[in-house]
Amino acid sequence: MDNIIGSKKSKKTKKLIKIVLSLLLGIVTAIMSFHGFPKSLENITADALYQKPDVIPDNIKIITIDEKTLSVLGPYSDWTRSSFAKLIETLNADPNKAPAVIGMDIVFSGTNNSDDDMLLVDTVTKYDNIVLASTVTLDTYLYQNNNGEYLLGNHISAEGKPFDKLAEVSEYAFTNAIYDDDGYIRRAYTRLTSQKDNASYDSFAYKIAQKLGSTAEFPPVIEIKFTGNAGEFENISMLDVLEGKVPASYFAGSVVLVGAYEEGLMDSYRVPIDYSSEMYGVELQANIINAILNNRIIYSANPILQFIAAMLIVGILAYFSLDTKLRKAVIGYFAIVICYIAFVIIFFNTTATKVNILAVPIGATLVFLTALLFRYMDMQKKQLIETRGMLFSMAEAMAEAIDGRTPYNASHTKNVAKRCVEMLDYINQLHREKKTEFHFSADDKRQLYLAAMLHDVGKMDTPTEVMDKPTKLGDREKDLRSRLEIISLHIKNDALNGVITQKEADSRLAKIQEFIDKLGGFNCGRPLKDDEWALIKEIEESIYVDAAGTEIPYLSQEERDDLHIKAGTLSDAERTIMQNHVVYTDKILSHMQFGEKFKDVRKMASNHHELLNGKGYPNGIGAEKLDTMTRILTIMDIYDALIADDRPYKKPKPIDIAFKILDEEAEFGKIDKELLEFAKDLYLKPTLEDDKKQVM
Q1: 3-class SS at 246?
Q2: Pseudo-torsion of CA 535, 538, 544, 550, nearest 10°?
Q3: Which residue of 22, 98, 193, 658 has the fewest C-beta atoms within 10 A of its own C-beta?
Q4: CB atoms within 10 A of CB 396
Q5: pLDDT tens, position by position, 459-516
Q6: Measured between alpha carbons, how far is 660 from 663 in angstroms, rounded to an integer?
Q7: CA R_g for the chain
Q8: Rounded to an integer, what distance in angstroms lies between the CA atom of residue 630 and that of residue 448?
Q9: Phi, psi of 192 (to 5 degrees)
Q10: Does the bond joining 38 to the residue before it have cis omega, within 30 degrees of 0?
């Protein structure tokens, strides 16, 4: 029986599955690491680990255009540039105590050549410690390199620089910000090269760092470690400086940044160091300048190396976790996650190089969940084999009981089951030799074997539930009443929720209640009146449909059939059960749960006395409803009955005579000719060949 039930996967198969799963999990993790997926969550986690406030430098100070300044000087749109000229003159009044750099985070783009504009030009001309702001428009364009390849390059298509006369006498640089997909600013430009015209543009922060003597080379785009949160850099109101409340000497040797510091001026950004508030543009520039001056730069690990490392870590973890003990898998999971995160933090603190954080922990989690699933599936496989073994053992026990009831049926069931399996194996062999289109799976073999073991189970006895059936519905009456009560509750609930009107609900409920009240009369077996038939018809045509569109018929098909019994309590099928063991077989098997794998067992066992010409029993069905395996069962049942030597009422037929009788049955259209030929090849030809050998 073991070769029919099936066995566990071989060690070789399990190892192959483990290798494939390990590779798959490793590759998935590596792809996540390469692309930084999931991006938003990766950014949040990286910000929490990598963005830590530091000591605020005392050599970077911010002069703010704040609410206090605006309240005295008026709306910013009404300002003349003389205010900025005055501020520059104030800060540079004493050359020995002047700021190292004055960075004006203001774009002086338009002009009417007024005296105030010219005053600003003259003031800027006098000093070499001033950097003004500009903006650039960055586009891409298609170009061809020396190898003839077409590539996409950067192109500065426009520049929002200071007005011409001011631009001629000043240093200026762009302040464009780089937004990540989540709207936060983590990166900054140092310089941009317009490949179309080979022009180079420095960023505002990088220009200021250069004026301070910084010669460090950085990539065009850098990710910075923010030093301070919004409001933490020292800031002084522009008004206080202009009015002399803060002496110019206070800014001696410092980097002084001048910029908007009021919400109405629309110059604020979301930054990763503090998710709860925005940072003004001039503060952002202060953070970038400090990052460049003090090398507070975040470097990214090589994505290819991260890809390989993630794949190896998770792949190896998967290989050793998938079939080890659960306790070891849990230990391995936590060890990998904790050690990896510790490595990420230590590696960043020592090298300022960030590694994608979440990919490996997510991959390890997938490994752990897969390991659980692997164990669950293995457990399910074991349970399936055990359950299948129990089912087959039960079938064999029932076959033993069936065959043991009479001395002339002692081995019939087992012989039929054995020959059915032999037939399928033989036909599969012919299929492999490309001699037939027929082919059967292992599940087919199990189904036919089980059907053969149970095909005569009806011979045990006539079911008592049929003999003693008191009403038309029998046990179904309880289910019907329960279903109608549930439908009534649904209808009441629909009325309460306004799905249907109360009037409509009352009508439906009254009809259901009328049916329930009269169900005893319908069910007792007496002839019914026309009005009673009308009520039954109305109920059996009724279907309740819930809000999700699920349909619940008031009556099942079986209940309809039972209620339509004209007289008495037994249906036609139940009357046949009383007369025929095949129907008993069907009834008994209807109470067994075979599951999807064995869904055809009952049908095959119940139909083994049906014939292709429709003249079999109990239902007289024809060829169109008889599948191949049922036809094989029919042939093997007849064949074994013909050659059986344990029947007291007849002598066994020789094999050749048995097949002659079967040939006649096939000619009359009762059994399948093609399948019979396979049986003859399997059982008759070897016998004839043995006879020839004996003669020779």
Answers
A1: coil
A2: 130
A3: 193
A4: 17
A5: 776 454 554 466 777 777 788 888 888 888 888 888 888 888 888 888 888 888 888 8
A6: 5
A7: 45
A8: 8
A9: -130, 140
A10: yes
